[in-house]
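How it folds
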Amino acid sequence: MAETDNPDAPLVPPRTTRFGEGVEGKVARRERGRGESHSGGPPRLIQFLHDVRAEMKRVSWPTFKHVQNTTIITLIAVVFFAVYLFAVDQALSRLIVGLDWVIEKVARFLGLA
């Protein structure tokens, strides 16, 4: 829910009178309105913690089954790519060893080694 806190609210873009007005959130407007840079002390920390708590209430948490499924898919993908990269690494390693052997034989035949 990026634009609204109410899932049943109609999707209407915010009215603006100037470019960029109405785009930033309440926290950005509140911070912009303050003249202080990085000070503020405990009241600012309390407000931050209040905002964090309010945002955490709006989070749509996944179900346990959904977390299980995505974890299993992730583990399968990790194992697949680990095996694939191991096979590619072994093939390239053997190719380099083989090329080294061929170059050594050719160099001996030509009398360069």
